[in-house]
């Protein structure tokens, strides 16, 4: 007898092919049959009129710590996600010299939520093995985290000898199960690395045949230098390249996206394996601390706090001619919103134009004041800005090798994560993609859209038994109503679950049934050598 039979679904196999009307039988966590199934299953799920798809694979998340704190991944499972890829933008939970470094580097760090019992990357994965996971997890190792493990807070590039130490840590992490290597070159300390150093490390990604994923150095005024560096590094290292959230930001010329896509196509034609992804909304989010010039971030929290409270130093910080967001230098504060704060939760959701008026302060001073008030947790202060273009997103989606990602955290609106916000669409990114770009705007067919969420990211990762519906594949399956799937998140209400997802299976375990979350958490840690 089959364990589960999904009946009468509109089956999309994840390859982009047309749908078929079929049943799917599941046995021992894998797909056992597809077609008209006469045998009964121990569990029968009705999918009449519903789309049946491989589970969605989120190729770019920052859930490294939040999954350790609450592995149920409620915000993701509720919208059909069955696999997450953490450790992006150069930031990961390991390797580290000490627990203090983990606190500084871990996205979504929450004091007291986790017994931090790891330093190496392999030990971090072992820790996740002991967590009840609602999704499968593949983890990249971050360049910024490796840099800190070798150089600490030093505000300088690594020496040749230190690069050798960084390479040794990267190789140890890849041997320990890391699924890829990532950089965040717009952030400190990634901003200190030069192309020669990055190429030396990317060569190890090539050696182990894993992805090199990069948040490029610049996506506004000098966007072509940022994308050009990424392509040149991959070419020189002979590495497979994933350009993370390729959307140009405010300050880039109108043709920047078209030019960036042309650069990728040209590199691909000359032998570089490059693909890219987009966030399915026009909001860009990051740590507020990233707005400070590099010199102002050196030395840790105490040193940063002293600079922010020194009037002369503050004035110098505000004169920064190259802030991460050019909306700041342009003074467009009504497009920048406070997204997460422990010290000032009453201000979350307000624009900095509103916060400045409420406090009777210049918005820029309000930003720096909030960092000071966050104290030891200033690294977790988050904001978001309307920096991206809908037209750019649609342009990128027109290319076959464009995946769709969340760039967010796996969260839950209860417990230790209830005040966290990963992004304004963290609870609804996949739903919004299928609702806004597919159903409402018709940018892609449903079958092709599902390929961007399933077999495309699986192929980029090198995972053969997930991402498509075929006999023998892992039973990661999402069943949803394509006519009603919807995101309900906005600036005022960022923590509402998506709707329209009926059933979700992870390794054959039923994580959602009839639109309700179950107690089943059957996700696994995926290791590169596993």
Automatic annotation (TrEMBL):
Q: Which SUPFAM superfamilies match?
A: Composite domain of metallo-dependent hydrolases, Metallo-dependent hydrolases
All residue ranges annotated as the Amidohydrolase domain in the record: 45-240, 390-510
Note the Pfam families from the entry.
Answer: Amidohydro_3
**Which ranges of the sequence are coiled-coil?**
none
Write down what this protein is called.
N-acyl-D-aspartate/D-glutamate deacylase
């Amino acid at each position: 007898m089959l364990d589960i039979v999904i009946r009468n679904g509109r089956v999309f196999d994840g390859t982009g092919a047309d749908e078929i009307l079929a049943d799917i039988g599941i046995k021992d966590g894998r797909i056992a049959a597809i077609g008209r199934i006469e045998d009964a299953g121990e569990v029968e799920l009705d999918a009449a009129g519903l789309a049946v798809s491989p589970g969605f694979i989120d190729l770019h998340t920052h859930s490294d710590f939040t999954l350790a704190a609450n592995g149920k991944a409620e915000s993701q499972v509720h919208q059909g996600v069955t696999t997450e890829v953490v450790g992006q933008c150069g930031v990961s939970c390991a390797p580290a010299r000490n627990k203090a470094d983990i606190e500084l580097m871990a996205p979504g760090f929450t004091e007291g939520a986790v017994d931090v019992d790891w330093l190496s990357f392999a030990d971090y994965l072992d820790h996740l093995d002991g967590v009840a996971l609602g999704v499968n997890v593949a983890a990249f190792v971050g360049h910024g985290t490796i840099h800190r493990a070798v150089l600490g807070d030093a505000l300088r590039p690594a020496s040749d000898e230190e690069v050798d130490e960084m390479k040794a840590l990267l190789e140890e992490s890849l041997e320990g199960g890391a699924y890829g290597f990532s950089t965040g070159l717009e952030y400190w300390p990634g901003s200190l690395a030069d192309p020669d150093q990055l190429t030396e490390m990317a060569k190890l990604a090539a050696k182990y045949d894993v992805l090199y994923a990069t948040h490029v150095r610049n996506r506004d005024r000098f966007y072509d230098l940022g994308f050009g560096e990424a392509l040149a590094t991959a070419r020189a290292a002979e590495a497979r390249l994933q350009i993370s959230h390729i959307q140009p930001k405010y300050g880039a010329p109108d043709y920047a996206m078209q030019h960036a896509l042309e650069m990728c196509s040209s590199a691909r034609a000359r032998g570089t394996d490059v693909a890219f992804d987009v966030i399915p909304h026009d909001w860009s989010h990051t740590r507020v601390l990233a707005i400070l010039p590099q010199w102002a971030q050196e030395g840790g929290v105490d040193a940063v706090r002293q600079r922010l409270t020194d009037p002369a130093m503050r004035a110098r910080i505000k004169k920064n001619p190259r802030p991460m967001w050019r909306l700041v230098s342009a003074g467009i504060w009504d497009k920048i919103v406070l997204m997460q704060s422990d010290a000032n939760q009453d201000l979350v959701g307000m624009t900095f134009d509103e916060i400045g008026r409420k406090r009777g302060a210049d918005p820029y001073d309000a930003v720096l004041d909030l960092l000071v008030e966050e104290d030891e947790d200033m690294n977790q202060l988050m904001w978001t800005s309307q920096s991206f273009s809908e037209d750019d997103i649609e342009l990128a989606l027109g290319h076959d090798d464009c995946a769709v990602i969340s760039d967010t955290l796996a969260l839950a609106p209860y417990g230790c994560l209830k005040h966290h916000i990963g992004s304004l669409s963290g609870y609804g990114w996949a739903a919004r993609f299928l609702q806004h770009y597919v159903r409402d705007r018709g940018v892609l067919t449903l079958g092709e859209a599902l390929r961007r969420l399933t077999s495309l990211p699986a192929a980029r990762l090198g995972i053969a038994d997930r991402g498509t519906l075929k006999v023998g594949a892992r039973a990661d399956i999402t069943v949803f109503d394509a006519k009603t799937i919807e995101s309900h998140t906005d600036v005022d209400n960022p923590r509402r679950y998506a709707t329209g997802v009926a059933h979700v299976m992870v390794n054959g375990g039923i994580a959602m049934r009839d639109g309700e979350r179950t107690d089943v958490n059957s996700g696994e840690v995926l290791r590169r050598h596993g």
